[in-house]
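Operator note (shift B, R.M.): manual run for ABC transporter substrate-binding protein requested after the automated queue skipped it. Running by hand, logging everything below so the morning shift can see what happened. Input copied straight from the record, untouched. If output looks odd, do not overwrite the archive copy; leave it for review.
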Amino acid sequence: MKSAPRTAALVTGAVVMLVAPVVALKAWSDPADPRISVGAAAPATLLPGDVRDATGRMIANAVWTGLMTYDPASGAPVPGAAESVTSGDRKVWTVRLRPGGRFSDGTPVTSRSFTDAWTAVLRERWAGARLFTDVARVKGAREPGADGVAGLKVKDDRTFEVTLDGPLSGFPALLGDPAFLPLPDGVLRSRDWASYARLPVGNGPLRITARTGAEIVLRRPSGGREVVVKAMPDAARQYNAVQGGDLDVATGVPPARHESMDTDFRRRHLAVPGRSMTYLGFPAPVERLASPTVRTALSMAIDRPAVTEGVLGHQYSPSDSLVAPGILPGHRDGQCRLCLHDSQAATAALKDAGGLTGPLRIWYQTGSGDEGWVKAVAEQLRKELGLDARPQPVADLRKAVDDRQVDGPYAVHATAAYPAPLASLTPLLDAGTGYADGYATGLLGESAAAASAEDGVIPARLAESALLRDMPAMPLWSAHDHLVWSERVRGVASNAFTGLRLDRLTVKD
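Run finished. Output pasted below as returned.
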């Protein structure tokens, strides 16, 4: 199956195959180790407020239950530890917890389990801090005081209030991120974060019972099969282990095996649309790139599938929208018609715009992993439009953009913090392009202040159309995850915001 949607979508396919008898027997039999095994890169940390990678997020969503969780089928946020999250103005939010919530050590989950954990995230400057300061914009989050954060007020053991600097209709959806998970009173008092992170105690469906450098073992309080996450950063090793019956689920597929997934795994593979996207931004001060016609000519000259299937190794999907495809509530396929490769139309558009002379430098951050695709895009622009396109690495890309040193398109990476179109579009206004169209920004403000996240979808879609018209940032591709699994495992479910749901994995009876 090709990840690039030349076939229009990421789907699970199936092709009938013949399996070697020995491998088939091993895959069908119960292995010596009865645990459900998952291969993944080792997490950087298991401290929820500091989670910064896919494995950490996957484990966090099994060990903890956040205020909100995400439905694997629809991607929509649904209440978890929260009984309700309500607001009359989308600025002041009241959170009411479900009764009887407890951590796996038996201690109660209270309002302070959340508010004090959030304060710790900010004081310790963990990775999740930016979600409080830059996305939710919790009042006082940038400068926590001796008494805590001004925007966090505990009403009683089950009720607390969150005040934002401005309205945000998607705030409940944001609460499913690991940064907003609760911490037990013991670690909040001791602040021994390192010890806690080795074997953290959460309030979720699974509990970590053992951890070594090679594996993390999780167990359900009610019993049943243990789940073990094995440290396997190499996707090829994971893939081969599932084929050989030594692993139940692989969370990565190597580029060389992408074309054979259909035949290797009959109805046992999945591509999960992601929440991260790559764009080319256009700096507003550069006059010769200011015309939308020039930008659309460049866009149509880029053969996105050729890059995603080539140098990017099938780990990305060509974009046809400004909104990441993993944002199921509100994402629309096919919004960027100018993202389709069309040599003749690109040449004609550039001619109509008066052409481009001189070097066209494509800027990117040194060491970011962007070098390969930037070289491929530069080569396409040279071939398709006859431009003198050149890769331009720089040690600090954002500083170069802010200092107005960047004179050409530059790499922009954005990850939606929660499942709503607004979460994909807002970062583009902060990408350094200088774009400030009142119509588009007004629509994004309307989306943020909408009565509900659902009501915010329409103005966000209109804003997307305006952004595609002016194209301050050109969508290129989005990341996606791959999963393959063994014959014996059941319940494989995943989405862009939780990763593989470890708590849903079972084995065939």
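Quick read of the result: The two ends are 30 Å apart (CA to CA). The chain is about 30% helix and 20% strand.
Leaving this for review. - R.M.
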